[in-house]
Amino acid sequence: MSAADDTVMAGNALTDPGATGFLQRFEGLRARLPGQRLPWLAARREAAAEAFRAQGFPTRRVEAWKYTDLAPLTQAGFGEALTSVDGALTLPRAAAPRRVVFVDGRFRPDLSDAEAPVRSLAEHLGAAEGLFGSLARTEDLPLVALNTAMFEDGALIDLAAGEDGGVVELLHVTLADRPVAVHPRHLVRLGAGAKLVLIERNWGHGESRYLNSPVLEFEVAADAHVTHARLQQEGKAGIHLSTVFARVAEGGTYDSFLLHAGAKLARSEAHVTLAGPRAAAHLNGAQLLSDGQHGDCTTFLEHAAPDCPSRQTVKTVLAGKSRGVFQGKILVDQIAQRTDGYQMNQALLLSDQAEIDSKPQLEIYADDVRCSHGATVGELDEDQVFYMRSRGIPEDTARSLLIEAFLQEAVEGVTDETARAALAEAVSGWWEKVA
Amino acid sequence: MLKIEGLTAEVEGKEILKGIDLEVPTGEIHAIMGPNGSGKSTLSYVLSGREGYEITGGSATFNGQDLLAMEPEERAAAGLFLAFQYPVELPGVGNANFLRTALNAIRRGKGESELDAMQFLKLARERMKALSMPEDMLKRGVNVGFSGGEKKRNEVLQMALLNPSLAILDETDSGLDIDALKIVAEGVNAMRGPNFSSLVITHYQRLLDYIVPDRVHVLMNGRIVQSGGPELAKQLEASGYNSVQAA
Known about the structure:
Chain A is an alpha/beta fold.
């Protein structure tokens, strides 16, 4: 039931021009980065820069990066985001009644709803000391190290015990009129019994290549419940590399859904620990990849306490010459008796030039465990397409309805209506735009 | 209305239709009867435009249009409907969404306004009531978990909503008990009129007790070998297809 878990250090930073460029930027920026007068943070940044220097960007020699090549990132130079000049900025329609907006990694109070329970991290770093980096590891995750060194701002959401944060959209816009690199850092803490629905949207505005590499940390206390719907809708030439950490205490729930719809190259990594009895995690997702896109959904889920359920359904639709990756590891510690784990990943290939790589991994040390997993790869059923066409439904609409039906099982797992509607809208009509 | 001349077609290099000549005038219902493997289903699929059938000769026109040159959805928009012998299940596609998408596609093709969700529901409920269909069938996935009879009734519901001028019923009677058969037949009979034609394909005479055809054609080995009035169906029922072969 177990598979080897190889963690290999890349260790080639000195020959890696991409990493060198980022390190030079850090040298140039460090005095101006927020929180430089806070000794704990300055020290963290320095240590993180050192960790990034030691590791460099991951290469495909690293087991966890076997299917995703960051060469497009390391071969290109990226610059600072300028102080925003965005008079012509048009934002996408809000997905929730309350929205906060970040542009190029910086909080924009002028575009944000003041009622939302979200503060600017850069302006409240003092309040973030106990939370910042409490989950995010830098020693074996170079992208997290880079973010820790370079972040300029992000959202700070700190809900007291019993507080209901409601439904909040966290919109990050990258202007992408030039090749910028941004590293937002979002921190979320829910006190015991608190509730939050967070619709995190990463959206590209412009045609240029760019890098958006956010890191999010979720501390979910006992009996707290967070829904985290992620909509990755980056620009066509964007690179999106995100890492989410969540630790869930007794009886709490981290209920997440990841949608990869944009970007040329995207990888979203989730590291979730079920730390107390009856903590629950949902790591569902969908990837819609058209010609030239690469999408990688990678998750590490640790059952570190007994009686915890986890559910994961990830669906990938691939068109044209696209490539999809699913890597899902479930680690069940010896203490985690009566774990109830379910993992399913399914791919729908719409083209014979598309490729899906799927790597489920179960590593189980407890003996009383129910863990099931499965993977399928299929194509659209032409009998179904014909049946719909024979009813007058145009071929592209028929295919589109069948693709949405394929995704539905994953999307309908999102219990919050607003979040589900936002996802459904992002998914709707995808094929008709692509075809 | 429908005019087929010398139609030949192959499946995977094997000739199935070997020269079909058939004319269904407007307002008439014609039955095609034949034993298994005679080409009945192939004929219905060729007429509705399913892929995998190579037309090697002949023609089929529908109201003067070259049917064989049209896409399946264009044929549907032009007024052709095929009730499937084995209706296809569409898990995850809601029946209501499916029916409304189809109806609006066809209405668009006719230059009519599209129905919104409320207008559609009102219409669908009326039609479903006439077919004794439970309303929750609208909420379910298309044909998913439907019994054989429910699937066939769903076919007739689609026909009633899409209001075609020519309906091909491909062994709609197969797998139906007598009550479901009557309901389905009533659904077809309700559409009878000067602007509706139908091609009823069946193996057995039973369905033709309830949908009385104007003409009956016997299809054997890829050709129409005999045509006659409704009495021909009864004759076949009594003496079997072998008697025709002998003739």
